[in-house]
Amino acid sequence: MSTSSSQVTNNIVYTDTDFTTLQTDMLALIPKLNPNWTNATDTDMGVTLLNVFCGICDMLSYYLNNQAYECYLPLAGLRQSVINITSLIGYRLARPSSATLNVTLTFDPLESAFVFNKYDIFTTADGTISYVVTSETIALAGSTSVTLTLTQGVPVTENFVSDGSYNQSYTLTNNSVSEDMLSVIVGSSNTEYTELQKDTYLSNIKLNYFFVNTDADNTTKIEFSSVYGSIPSNGDSVKVTYLDTLGVGGSVTSGMITKALDSTKVPTGTEISQNSVATSGTSRESVAVTKKQAPREIRTLWRAVTAEDYKTLLDGYPGVLTSNVFDHSVDSAIPIQQVVCVVAPIGGGALTDSFFSELKGYLNRVCMITTDPVIKNPQYVDLTIKANIYVGSSYDSNSVILAVTNAIKKSFYTGVYDFGSPVRFSQIVSVIQGIAGVSYVTMVAPLTDVPITNYEIANFLTPEIALAGVV
């Protein structure tokens, strides 16, 4: 009984799409389909054409497979694909987050009250980095100082006119729209709209919401839809105010904010003191973070019930480096209705007043009504790694010292070590001895493991590496 060509080709495994497998399968079919074709070497024109066909199929399979990968969150490589996939579960990739800091202004006793307005600008000495006042602050008559919370960014205002359609979209000019201090005012009555967040519960779809959509190219659009709230009427003005931010690039060190952009915005003779570093400034959320964070957050349904829920939602909040959460089941000293959240901002240090308020409001939205979330600053354990190293005679000592210093900075910094993670002496020695050119090392500090409690986090300072000798 003869074998038809359809029966023969059905033996091909269609998941075998690489060149070698395709070539092997097709060469095996030659004697079955054409017994007279006996020359199956590369010198045969038919084999040459077969190889070309296999090469084209291999290339097409590569592109087809990669298109399929973009449909799955763990496999997607394009940022826009990740944005599209996570939008299906209501997850939005975070825009850059502005760094925040506190400054203290001192001046002669005021004869009358002085108002520091929201969006008043303060800058570094060279004027390259701008910070704005987060909220209106009043210094009372007779006072000689005031503390202001500042947020990094240049305030930008753009105006649009509504066309009244049920789906409205307005593209912003700048590509670095901050997560912070974005406001939308609509109409002559100055109706304030609220940004729709992933944790927002729409109990009333007639509330005034707007949605922010940022694509892979950082083009940001303000969108209104009748699906999730009231929409501006035809002819209404739409005023959008936001911060054009440097993100992590705005995380200045202490003492850098030294002047007001407009001297009339501060009392005469004002001296500005910035004693703390800027914290919580971040770049836009990365694809790698989204692939990890989105599934974790969707499991919480953006509602905090367990301690794990609180940690998941806090760790995903822009500007938060890491957190640790305790409740009555972990620490009996904590009242049963409380959840204690210890939060470390990106950049280290304490939470600024504005960032603290943002986190408190966020937790109040997502927690159970019977729960009282308490936010605390972490206790930093400052550590300086000090070591004397012996370098091989065939190596440049300065280069080895630099390599050791860089390796320590890469391996030990706030964020690698989480709350309660002890610092292992053996790991420090291992990192140093792993550098080419280091013959051996004598540790100066630390000399043993450093224990860290659950309320503490290790904060590694600049390492001190010295040359002890050449061997």
Tell me what you see in this structure.
With 471 residues, the chain is of the alpha+beta class. The chain folds into five domains: 5-69, no CATH class; 100-153 and 248-273; 155-244; 287-377, GMP Synthetase, Chain A, domain 3; 381-470, no CATH class. The protein contains nine helices and 23 strands. A seven-stranded mixed β-sheet has the order 7-13-9-10-11-12-8, with no helix packed on it. Helix 2 (19-33) packs across helix 3 and helix 5 runs antiparallel to helix 6. The radius of gyration is 30 Å and the shape is globular. The mean pLDDT is 91.
What is the secondary structure topology, with strand pairs?
Elements: H1 5-9, H2 19-33, H3 45-69, H4 79-87, E1 100-106, E2 114-116, E3 121-124, E4 130-133, E5 137-139, E6 145-152, E7 154-161, E8 167-171, E9 183-186, E10 191-195, E11 209-214, E12 220-225, E13 237-244, E14 257-260, E15 271-273, H5 287-300, H6 307-315, E16 320-326, E17 338-345, H7 353-366, E18 372-376, E19 379-383, E20 386-391, H8 397-411, H9 425-433, E21 438-445, E22 456-460, E23 464-470
Parallel strand pairs: 10-11, 17-18, 19-22, 20-23
Antiparallel strand pairs: 1-6, 1-15, 2-5, 3-4, 3-14, 4-6, 7-13, 8-12, 9-10, 9-13, 11-12, 16-17, 20-21
Helix pairs in contact: 2-3, 5-6
